Amino acid sequence: MKWTVANAMTRQKQRSQPVRFSTRHNPPLSLGNLMPFLLWLGVLALGLPRVAAQTAPVGVHEAFQLALTKDQRFQVVKAQAQAEMELLPQASARLLPAVSFNVVRGRVHQERDDNNTLILNQRYNSQQEALVVKQPVYVPKLMRAESQAQALVRAAQANVDLERLSLMGRVTETYLGAVLARERVGLVERQVSNAQSRLKAAEAAFLAGTGTRTDVLDIRAEIDLTAAQLIQAKQAVFIAEGELSSLMGVPTVQIKAFNLQDVRPDLFGPNRLGELWEIVLRSHPELLQREYQRQAAEMALQAARAEHYPTADLTLQRSRSVGDSGFFANTQITAQSLGVQLSVPIYQGGLIDSKVRQALASLQESEFRLGEAKQRLENEFRKTYFLVNETQSRWLALQTAIESANLTVLANQRSAQVGVRSQLDVVLAEQRLTQAQLQLAEARVQAVLAWVKTMTWTSIEQEPVLQQLALRFGL
């Protein structure tokens, strides 16, 4: 028996020798041993393009400048405006002299007979040339059409300015939306980290016999819910940055770091609503566009009524005819004429009266559209103006709520330490604090957007507003 045990122990030592030997020496190379190294190289290779693709952070003004050249919607409006601007040279050209040169060449076969007796049979070439110059002298319709084209060109330019203003609003809103999304991610990550700390404390209390299993399970459930919110917040960041990169026409974009805590209500100086609205009436692109369209409709009405008036044109013509005839061979006739052509409309079946009624209806429509735009913009501007002015009281209320939430978290933490409160109460108090912080961040972003909208509406040039925004907030 003793020999058997000793022999078994000896065999056990012999089997353990290779294990001790392997720990002191490197194993032979194999695919299994190289796999972690290969995986590390693959991750590094995948990471290199990302590092190379990263660019410097882009500010809101730089993003807007790039969007002016890349945004397809703005390019469409610019192309439409360029096409509509050609209406003015076309209308002006109708008032200038019109010069035309006509050439007619043909082959003439002429037969002459008298009582069925053929007298003459001719075949010859014929050519006619005519140079005609026509200068409108008094054409009221064309004069009104030129004024109408001028108004339409101004309306097209105002439409470009309106789309530029809209693009600025979309870029600013998307940029600040990405900033808010990143702020939300940071707050939710902090909430998850705090909840995990509370979970460890709850588990330790449960093992010590001072806590319950229910507290541990409830905190885990809250962590799972917060983790889902974190996924949603990160997705919001991805969507906002993707929309911004689409506006800028770049594959990826990196925004500048922006601390929403730097936004203060005292940055927005109060102004009088009436004075600002007067500036909006004079400078807003949509109101200018509607006014120019109304002027164009008025000129169209005058042009339609002018079709009842007579027109006068100065004409100059020089013609030359070369050919043969039955009496003369190789005949050449040259004629010149200078005169005034007068046209008096008498009756066209009610066509002109119908055009007048149509133009009058279009004028009324343009006036109604101008009034509707004034009402709508006045309501929007009033809301934006009061949103800017009301931010101070709103921020103060939210900051007071945050201070109260901080005190609640501190009280729950101390109560949990003495066993009066559970760790779940601390987690719920921290969630309420996070919600208050998110509401304050959203209020600050809305205030900045309202400030940008108010300043751009009351400024003839909008880009200095973005430059001021970049200087104030470091964007």
Care to give the gist of this entry?
The protein has 475 residues and is of the alpha+beta class.
CATH superfamily: Outer membrane efflux proteins (OEP)
**Corresponding CATH architecture:** Up-down Bundle
CATH class: Mainly Alpha
- Strand residue content: 5-15%
- The rounded distance between the terminal residues' Cα atoms is 86 Å
Number of β-strand runs:
4
Q: For the residues shown, what is the average pLDDT?
A: 79
- The residue fraction in helices comes out at 55-70%
Largest sheet: 4 strands, antiparallel
Overall tally of structural domains: 1
Structural class: alpha+beta
Helix/strand order, N-terminal first = HHHHHEEHHHHEEHHHH
Unreliable parts? 1-54
Dominant shape: elongated
CATH topology: Outer membrane efflux proteins (OEP)
Number of discrete helical segments:
13
Q: Within the largest sheet, what's the order of strands?
A: 1-2-3-4
